[in-house]
Structures are given as structure tokens and as C-alpha cells.
Amino acid sequence: xxxxxxxxxxxxxxxxxxxxxxxxxxxxxxxxxxxxxxxxxxxxxxxxxxxxxxxxxxxxxxxxxxxxxxxxxxxxxxxxxxxxxxxxxxxxxxxxxxxxxxxxxxxxxxxxxxxxxxxxxxxxxxxxxxxxxxxxxxxxxxxxxxxxxxxxxxxxxxxxxxxxxxxxxxxxxxxxxxxxxxxxxxxxxxxxxxxxxxxxxxxxxxxxxxxxxxxxxxxxxxxxxxxxxxxxxxxxxxxxxxxxxxxxxxxxxxxxxxxxxxxxxxxxxxxxxxxxxxxxxxxxxxxxxxxxxxxxxxxxxxxxxxxxxxxxxxxxxxxxxxxxxxxxxxxxxxxxxxxxxxxxxxxxxxxxxxxxxxxxxxxxxxxxxxxxxxxxxxxxxxxxxxxxxxxxxxxxxxxxxxxxxxxxx
Length: 409
Known about the structure:
Elements: E1 7-14, E2 18-25, H1 35-41, E3 51-57, E4 60-69, E5 72-80, H2 85-98, H3 104-115, E6 119-121, E7 126-130, E8 135-139, H4 142-145, H5 152-155, H6 159-171, E9 175-178, H7 182-193, E10 205-209, H8 214-220, E11 228-231, H9 234-239, E12 245-248, H10 258-283, H11 298-304, H12 312-320, H13 322-330, H14 335-343, H15 346-350, H16 355-371, H17 376-394
Parallel strand pairs: 9-11, 9-12, 10-11
Antiparallel strand pairs: 1-2, 1-5, 3-4, 4-5, 6-7, 7-8
Helix pairs in contact: 10-11, 16-17
Protein name: UDENN domain-containing protein
Organism: Trichomonas vaginalis (strain ATCC PRA-98 / G3)
GO molecular function: guanyl-nucleotide exchange factor activity
């Protein structure tokens, strides 16, 4: 399959059989346990006959285009693990303008042909994009990574609404978006995620769900698994009490106001800069504090949120979110961490660690080796740490299924 998509699927909707798969590539693509959800969500519940939108299955994004051919409703869905929403949505808009009489099967083939020609240059971080009507090159920068093409004010609401949305996304208290169309809902969610840049959202999300999707039934029954959810079904707004914020999306045209989003981005940036400063401070006394993901203390939290519209309770929730955990892991290998690990004697920092902490430490150190390739000195020191940890664990009273792995050379 092409680098920028994992699968492509053509589906058909009939009154007698409902939604069903016509064809998909590759033939061995595994939809897992969410195949029914994939098929159901490929067609909006509101039965739009021409719609371009997004939804999610497992850890993949799905970009769908529904259209009519000879009074039959079809959908082409591209499954990808890349989150470049504007590129895929605009691709389908270009397809829509270019192919007005072609058969669904031909359009399915065209989709794969065009997407298969997208090429990424890691040296320049540029992606060569091929649309039916044009070819162009784009830098895969923050505009794409953080969905900055989607404006929160025009798609969600004014600053007062966005305050609640931002807080609920960051803390994981939950946000439910209810709109008129799947296209409106999915665009609004990408806009909402742009509010927390430069942090990437990593908690469970349903960009679009509908009646017939088991996940929608779970939400109606009170599931708190998904922290950000979009739907067109008003039943969710009526029944779901687990979401701290519920937004009924506006249907009037509102001018974009990117300066409003910048307020939230500056706030987010200030928070993570202060967090990183505290993490660096912790490394001065414990080189393993980042590896073991030691939580920040209450006094540290108070210093972080000083003069920021964010309470200590908010931060405690943020610190437990997968979004925070993934962000923290993404900055692990940095100069402060390297200097800390090299400045401590392994025997001293390992000496009084409990066995359960050593098990976690050993696993983390081995994973760390893959992230520091090329730094021979640091690799040698990490292997020294692993060797000492292993010696401690060999004499520990551990379950028989926990085997000590040999250090990497």
C-alpha cells in the first residue's frame, strides 16, 4: 500500500441491505473488531448524498467521500495513520470536481493511483502531493500536524465556548460535538484539536459516530472511554451526561478568527514550557525521573499554573491524560536528560530502587537504546545501567515468567 494510506475501500448503500463493502485494497487489510463500525460510519446518518468527512477506527483515521451514481449511494474511504486532515479532505474535494460521470469502480481506482504518487522527502520534510487537478509540494509543518487549517471560531463558536472546549480537551473531562452533518462535525473536531497546539492530542477520540455504530451505543450507555466525540444524532446530546462540555455546532457562517486560537496556543505553550522546566529540575536529583514518569509535586504544579487560567485540579487531570504522557515521552531524549544520566553513578541511583521499579526501569532503558542511536557514549552508559539492574533483578524474588533480557550491545 502507498506510504500515506493503509487501505482504500469502496462501499455501497442500498435500502434492502444497508451499507456493504464493494471492494477494498489491500485484500489482506485487517479491520479488526471494528469492521462493522467502519462500514456503518462510512455513510452519514443524516443521509447526505454528497459529503466529505472523517471518522476513526482503532488508531486509524478514515477520510470518506459519499456520492450518488445512478440513484445509488456510494462511499470511497481512505484509511490512514497520518493525521494530515486538510490534505485528504481537499483531495476528495478535487476528486469531486474532476470526476462527475465516472463509475464508482473507476473513481476507486483513480483514488489509489493519485494517493500512490504522494512522496515524502525526509531531508526537506516536504510532501509531493498529487490531486486530479494539480500537483504541488507542501511542508509537513505545524499547520498540518496540528490542524491549523480548521478555524475554531468559525467551526465551533466564540471564545467563551472555546474556553470550555479547550479545558475539557486538556483535562480529559470530555467534549461532545453535535452538528447537522458529518462534514461539519469532523471539521469542528479538527478545529478543536488545533486549540492545544503545540501538543498533539493522544486520548481516545471518535471524530464521527452514529446510530448503528456499537461505539455510539456504548456512549449512549454512559461510556467514558472516548474523550472527544462527534455525532449528528441528537440522542447523544439528550442522553449523555458523562461529557463535561457539550457543543451544538452553529449552522450560520462566521468569519475565521485565528487570533482567538492563538490565545489558547500561547496558554498551552506556556504550560508545557513550565512543565519541561520542572522536569529538568527533577533530573538534577534523579536521572530516572523522566524514564519512570515521576509525577510533578503539588508545589511544582502551583508554580506551573501561576497566573494561568488553569487550576491545580485541572493540571492533575492533564498529568494523567494520555496526551500529557505521550507529550512527555516525546521530549525524553533532550540535553538535560543526557547530561543527567551521564553525571550520576549507576550504582548509586539504582541502589535503593524497589524490584517493581527496577522492572519498569529495565524495560524503559532497553527501549531508550533505540532512540539514541549514534550516541556511542550514551549507549555505553545505558548498557552499564541495564547490566547493574539485571544483577539486582537476578537476585530478586520475581515471578518465573519475568525473564531477564541480555543487554543490547
